[in-house]
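[step 3/7] fold_predict: job queued, chain A
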Amino acid sequence: MEDQVETVRCWIQDIFTEDFESILLPVNEDVKTSVYAQIDFNRNKITKIKNEDDEIVYKDGMKYFGSSQDEIPQGKGQVILPSGRVLNGTFIDGRLDGTVRDVDPEDASILEVTYCRGVPHGTYRHTRMDGQFLSFGRFANGSKTGVHLLVGTGGNSYYLGPVEKDGKLNGEVTYLYPCLYKAIVGHFKGGRLSSGQYRTLVGAGVESGFLVLNFEDEGRGEILYDPSTFMRISRDPLVTDEYEDETVYVKQSTTEGAGEGLFARRRILGGELVSMFSGSKIIKDSNRKSIKYGDEDWSDFRLTLDKSVDLDIGPEHQLCSQYRATLGHKACHSFDHKNSVFREFEHPRFGRIMSVVAVKDIEPDEEVFVSYNYCVSLAPPWYQEIWFKHCINKGLSKEKIMDMVGREVSKFGIPMEVPGFVL
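[step 4/7] structure written:
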């Protein structure tokens, strides 16, 4: 299995990092003559020509900068569309041809794509401006075709399958966990899993520049799209995930008074997915800046998903006998023994959620610890107490600790009780 995983890992790495020209997929058909160029440089729509700047302005607000012949783009140039998208490439008789760089400020992404006679026709690679890889595949006559690689939110899970015009997965799709040997293979419709099964990788190769995977003949279990909502954490809260079954287990934490904790079932390498964290979705009040311990909305298990949504495990789901679809909420807090962190993640059953990822190697039967990253002045007493102990263990002076307390209090206006062992 190691050879197959390495094949997958190397192909994905190459797609991410190599020059675009070196990862081009073969083009199997010519552009249809009935397909029109996506950008119209009609002379009749020109409102202004600035020869000194090589600029042509059109009635709809579109601007062209670069070489031209008879007021038609010819050679290297750049076009700025009314939407703000910026396309750089080579023009032949007013039509893009060859490699084009398409920058979209609306979603902060960059599309590298092959054009032919004015339409996307060939390989594309889509990334965010921060370098996060989004997708890879092929266009034909302006539409996406064949199998595409899509990267899940968080950047460490992968989908392989056909997509609709809007880019959503549709048809037979393979979802790869970050380990790259475990998958969910099933049917997607409108970007959502209709039905799938767990499969294990047995073969991997690259044919005509694209990854080809083979799995065990027999699938296991049945996985359905089951995202949490405000009212429901899961339709099947007691149905576990196979990856978690093989990676972690729950028992009494080694931390006194913490209740259940999360432990490694096998050796987990730094950077590996440890566990997933789903929960009921809570829409944040945009007018409320913070929640403190004692507030009605406070929960030790509440975790930020994004600016508008938190995930939470309510009191009725905090035991494994009540909820075990994901187990990330069982990871206990530690300042001194942290070996994992919370990261965004995507899964075909749960959708966009959070996860626990190892930051160092974790040995079998070792407890998984994360930092809850509470604002100290807003946190419950147990968290404040171990924070003070952590500061002392780090060798911080009383003056330094009191200065940190003062800054916390001034930030939120909530007083903190300093324990006697600090004073």
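[step 5/7] annotate
The mean pLDDT is 94.
The helical segments are 2-17, 242-247, 381-393, 398-412.
exit 0
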